[in-house]
Amino acid sequence: MSNDKCFEVKINAKKIVSKLNAMKQEFTDLTPFLKLISVKLLGAIDDNFKTEGKSSGEKWKDWSDTYKKWKIKSWKGGTPLILTSSTDLKNSIIDEIEGNKLTIGTAMEYAAIHNFGHKERNMPQREFIRFGRKTFEEILEDINEEAKSRLQKHCNS
Fold it and tell me: What does the pLDDT look like over 85-95, one tens digit per residue?
């Protein structure tokens, strides 16, 4: 015992260290967390298509009057939602988890024009890959629940 200590207790903490190492392993692979995040983000994108952007904060700009008249006349079954005349764009959005990285996107050539707009083509921005505050709050809740569940598993074993 060193001179500056008047009392010292040593505990064999092999079990505790072993548990901590096991917990550390639970959080090394982020794939389960990325899957939770992906489900939430893809759901939010789907909601954007269904609500024409309202679900993430701002409704998309409507069609021009001329285009809207043509669309209604040529569409069978009422007025289609913006960006849903076909499901190609919506169905092209995919998620990819590689290592500890999540990518969500689409390979559709015209997707960027719709998402960001195009002034030369007079195409307004209709940001379908956009997320509101609620989505991020839900993601944090899901991550917290998953982390608690994983930690609890080790505490009970």
Answer: 888 999 999 99
